Each structure stands twice: as structure tokens, then as C-alpha cells.
């Protein structure tokens, strides 16, 4: 046989970033397809941890460690499919490009496949990679993955972006009616039979070994196994979603939310899988239409904020969506900020929420709104201080949703809450934690008090801080500052 005629299989590199899964992964699916000549391709995967870049982007240890666990699970799953996942430590985005090109040259890779990310620096990095790789004959393919509709492509008839959620939602639902959501099959199963495991000579690479961090108390509460998370999604849609429209507002109700936000933020689950699971509930159980629709609305809010991040890149630069709000004279009050961070404001529901964040790496969504309004309106402290604190502690930290939520609460963003509408810490507790169960969980010093006293303790009666501000006076100061912008 003439060895010159042997056709070498095409090698493709799947670059995992915020899509740490094998199910419904368009980049991985496409990489596993046969070459144009019908020959099976060889698939190699990589994940490059840019720890310095993560820190510059305000990622805290909870998000970083959870990502590591998700990568480790992915590595083990891919290995069972005979796909090696090379994990590298590269410091920053420039290092990612450098080692990607080096990998392609050393391993004779012809294509790089990856899923898009909405953030500005990430998009600049990908554009630079496309140019650099193209110059040496390597093709790059990027796939929409973090949104139901390609990010930035849902526009009004005049070509301008939607700035109000309700209008965006309506058009989004119309678009999805004519472009039904589908998921990508798992194409890796066949590779375990088609390609032998590729042993990589990794001695010259800056290797990084992801760890399980299973001993971490916070990490234990958040599964990083793709298989387990798919089961969690199925369980939520068969048991939990039925009461979602009402139970989601009560922070003491452990079944009131899906607890899938960390998996969505890391791409361990896809938004398409979540959307279709909810739609299936609506199709099978008409009595749960409202509850499932309510969860779909939360997914569409996530969608909205991702589109905005692409269409308004200044949001990635910590700039307010409403330019006029740059003139707000935020208070420089480091001691007040510290009390808010530590959950020592003297307002029990606010404090319980802040301690939930510190102790669990997560906070109930209604409470995220409450503590954000409290910081930005009652204390008139710059919303960016809160946005940063959340990014540092949330295990589901996500720039688009975090920025969107904080700007909504601070009345600086798109479709924001009117500046004169504030959430009262006491009223919110009376409505959504009337028995003080949630407060007692995170403020044990109040646990022995009657429910009403947990919500509003008597000043000086126990070892608990006095309220740090007068709500009426603080509200008036905030109103005056926001009114000044229109004068």
C-alpha cells in the first residue's frame, strides 16, 4: 500500500469556555461531524483558566471554584468518550490566544470551534483569534449558545435595540414561534468507537489540574455533575415548577426556586434545555401554564440582559445605561457600606439576605432586589459597589444578569424601577417572611423572638444593631437627588 495515499483524519479543537457540558453543545456537536470526505474527524478539547483575567472581571472564589468543578466533571465525561480535555493555566486572554495557536501548530489542528460569549473583552479576544488563526490557515467557528435568539439580533423595525423588557418579551415570543427552540444531540458517544484516546505530550504546556473542592461547605450545596444537573432540571419541572409563580417570592421556601442559576452561569446546563423543559410542562399540564410561563419569563429576562450587553458595550465598562444618571452624587460612606456587606444594617430581612450570601454563595432573587434598593436608594451608595460585592460572592455570578439587576434596582438601567418606588425592608418581610422563618435561619440572635419582633425588633432589647438609617428621611434624600437630574 502506498502510505502517501492514506488520508489522515482532520483534527479539530473544541475550546470550552462558558459551555462546560456535552449535551446541547453546538461547538462540540459540530466538531464531532465527519469531514467533507466522509472520514471521521479527530476531536481534541481544551479549557484555559485565565485566573488573572477572572480576577480583573471580579470573579470571586465561589464562582472560580465552581467553574473548576464543572471543568473536572467535563474532563472525566469526555475521557469516557475518548476525547482528551487539555486544561491549561494561562493568566489572561492574551495567553489563551497564544496557546491556542501553539496547540493548533503542534497538534496539526485545522479548526477551532467554540461557543460565543456576550461580554466585550471576550468578543474582542475572539475577533483577535479569528484574525490571528486565519493568517496561518486555521479556521474558527463560533456558535450562539448563551441565548435562545442570537445575541444582539432581535431589533425593532427601525433597527434599534429594545430598551423595555415587555416589548422585547413580546417580540422574543413571536420570534420563537417561527423559530422553534431545539437542542443539539450528544454526538460524542460515537467517538468512543471511532477514535482511540489521543495521548497528548503535555510536558511543555502550563498544565492546570482542576479540583473537586468537595470539602468546601458552599460548594457542597451546588452539584457540578452534568448528569446530576439534568436530573435536577427534570425534577424541578415535574415537582417544583407547579408552584413557581407563587412560591418563588418566599425565601424560606426551599422548593420555591430552581437552584439552577449556577449551572446556567457556567454553561453546565443550556438555556435551550431549560426552555424546552418548561414548555413541555405547559404542553402536558395545562393547569400549570401560569407557573411554567413565570419561569420562562425569568429565562427571558436573562435573555434580555445578554442582548443588551452585546448592543450596549458600555455596560461592560461599569457605565450606567441612562447617561444622565452619571451625575448622581453617590455617598462615599465606607462604614455604611461595610455594615451592608456584613449584614449589620439593623433591618432583619436585609441582614438575613446579606448573611445568606456570605454563608451560601447565593441569594434569593426577591432579596437581591431588596438589598440592591436598600444600598442604592436608602443609603444612596453607588450601585457599582453592590454589583462588585455580588460578583465576589455569588456562585452564580454572571455579568449580564448581575449588572442588569443592579441597574434596575438603582434606576440607572433599562426598564428600571421608577426612582420613586422603593422596597420597604419591613413591608417585604411582612409579605414574604411573615413568620420570620427566613430571618431566624440566618439571624439566630432573633430566632427566639415572636415573628413580628423578628421582622422589627425592639431597639435595645437584644444584641442586634439598631437601624442604621431612618427610612423616611433616607427616601426623601434619594428622591431629591434623582429629581435634581431632571432640573
TrEMBL record:
PANTHER family: CRYPTOCHROME, CRYPTOCHROME CIRCADIAN CLOCK 5 ISOFORM X1. Belongs to the DNA photolyase family. The keyword Hydrolase does not apply. InterPro entries: Crypto/Photolyase_FAD-like_sf, Crypto/Photolyase_N_sf, Cryptochr/Photolyase_FAD-bd, Cryptochrome/DNA_photolyase_1, DNA_photolyase_1_CS_C, DNA_photolyase_N, Rossmann-like_a/b/a_fold. This is Deoxyribodipyrimidine photo-lyase. It holds the Pfam family DNA_photolyase. It comes from the Bacteria. The record marks 330, 383, 406 as: Electron transfer via tryptophanyl radical. GO terms for molecular function: deoxyribodipyrimidine photo-lyase activity; DNA binding; FAD binding. Transmembrane segments: none annotated. It comes from Oceanospirillum sediminis. Its cofactor is FAD; (6R)-5,10-methylene-5,6,7,8-tetrahydrofolate. Binds 1 FAD per subunit. Residues 10-148 form the Photolyase/cryptochrome alpha/beta domain. Keywords: Chromophore, FAD, Flavoprotein, Lyase. GO terms for biological process: nucleobase-containing compound metabolic process; response to light stimulus; response to stress.
